[in-house]
Design goal:
The structure is a homodimer of 286-residue chains. By secondary structure, chain A is α/β, with parallel strands linked by helices. The first copy, chain A, is built from 9 helices and 12 strands. The longest helix of chain A has 15 residues, at 14-28.
């Protein structure tokens, strides 16, 4: 029988659990009101479907909202401008923005007020980053999103630089950016906004991936933090796979495998993790 | 004939030139007074000898000072406490502390006042570092000197960390320290106090050392910045040599060599660089 090593920290983080609880609560008490989430509540299509059945309807833009409805702001947060636009539609808001994301907003405002040019280490198209840029704009600050080393060109010759990160950033890349900027700039102030859940999940992969025959990372294909867990796993163990669901597992992956490592992104529900474990047991039993 | 590639930035830096000018000026105008330097004026025994002949007498401690004499504070600087002790001996002071070293003192005071725990990336026993620690103490601040990765243990669990560097630090090590601390601490403020002369000399070595058959680094064996230039050269080109004077060059080093790279620490006088070039020409002519 194969041994399955499940990462100590895997699956839902604090902010995601909180957002789902708030959404379920809103759905339970909705009376006649329509409950919306602005964008899928989390980056996991299966869990979004489960919530839809309970009455949480994802909409892509404000246009589809009925006045009098309730809009859940998901854990990624939104810009203050967008929040005002929502309210102008006559809906009420349940703010499920992750408190750690709120801390990024606050850090960006603080560093802007202190006159720093902001480096936000993150993915340009990620909703969390777009929301944070909205707070930067609102504070009258200047800055840039750094997704890869090329983006650092925009920071050259900046004298005073403030650095923050998307909560789910890769720690190694953050470290590289910080080191580079510190060599150019005269003064750098860093508020490390990578959340504990992110560091813990990444550290678990650094520990487990080299010690197993095969590594499985579970999570939405649209989930940035899951993708980064997978990239780290792949760099340490070429037999690493990223799956969204148990159905994607293939029997041939497990040939000759004695130890399987398992982790899941912060937006992956427990029920999917359990299905994956069950399916691995099936595929590997003699 | 061998080609000699001399680094664009080699030898005396601004601060060293300034200190030597101030010392020579004091010696010229000394009248009956005795001129002292507290410690050797620069980390180069040959140049210190040259200055001694002009009337600049290095003393190791305050004890040997005659009242009424003139003490030159060398480019490395001293602590404010030691400066008061000097004045209490009845001597007058010529302050040749490098302005870039003064900037380190100011950075440490500023960061302490802002409540940061100070990380001073530098050599524990270097006079510049000892002087800077005196300013830290005077400001009522707390901190630690980080010379290697082990020293970082003292920084773990520090919440707010301010980082500065000895002016002649290795940029790569500074970058590593900054990156590590940024992952642990909640807030990090960095004032990059590595001076331009240091970065320029190090960058030249990164450029030249891999492109030559042999690399010669000239400078005092007690010169930290020279040692670091040599370490960088050695890591890039195993045929790297550190010499203090032209006499140390050996003919056998140059067997089969077509291109020689040459650089010198910030405390190496031009006349030594010229002697080394002359000696290389002699040793390699057919």
């Amino acid at each position: 029988m194969v041994e399955i090593v499940v990462a100590e920290h895997a699956g839902f983080c604090f902010g995601v659990k909180r957002a789902i609880n708030l959404a379920e609560e809103a759905a339970r008490e909705r009376k006649q009101k329509t409950i919306y989430s602005l964008g899928p509540l989390i980056h996991n299509p299966q869990e979004v479907n489960r919530l839809r059945q309970k009455g949480v309807n994802p909409v892509e833009s404000e246009d589809g909202l009925e006045s009098g409805g309730v809009v859940i702001i998901r854990s990624h947060g939104i810009s203050p401008k967008r929040e005002r636009e929502l309210l102008s539609k006559g809906v009420s808001i349940v703010d499920a923005t992750c408190p750690f994301v709120k801390a990024v907003h606050e850090a960006v405002i603080k560093l802007s007020q202190e006159g720093y040019f902001i480096v936000l280490v993150g993915e340009k198209n990620h909703p969390e980053v777009i929301g944070t840029l909205g707070y930067l704009e609102e504070a009258g600050g200047k800055g840039v999103v750094v997704e890869n080393r090329d983006d650092l060109k925009a920071v050259l010759h900046r004298d005073r630089v403030g650095i923050v990160a998307q909560t789910t950033q890769n720690e190694q890349f953050f470290k590289e950016v910080v080191g580079e900027v510190a060599l150019w700039a005269r003064e750098v102030k860093i508020i490390n906004t990578i959340c504990n859940a992110t560091s813990e999940r990444q550290e678990d992969v650094y520990k487990i991936a080299p010690e197993v025959d095969l590594m499985v990372v579970i999570g939405g294909r649209n989930s940035g933090n899951t993708k980064r867990l997978y990239e780290i796993a792949k760099s340490l163990n070429p037999r690493s796979y990223h799956v969204e669901t148990a159905e994607e597992l293939k029997a041939e992956w497990f040939e000759g495998v004695k130890r399987v490592g398992l982790t899941a992104g912060a937006s992956t529900p427990n029920w999917i993790i359990e299905q994956v474990i069950g399916r691995i047991r099936e595929l590997t039993k003699l």
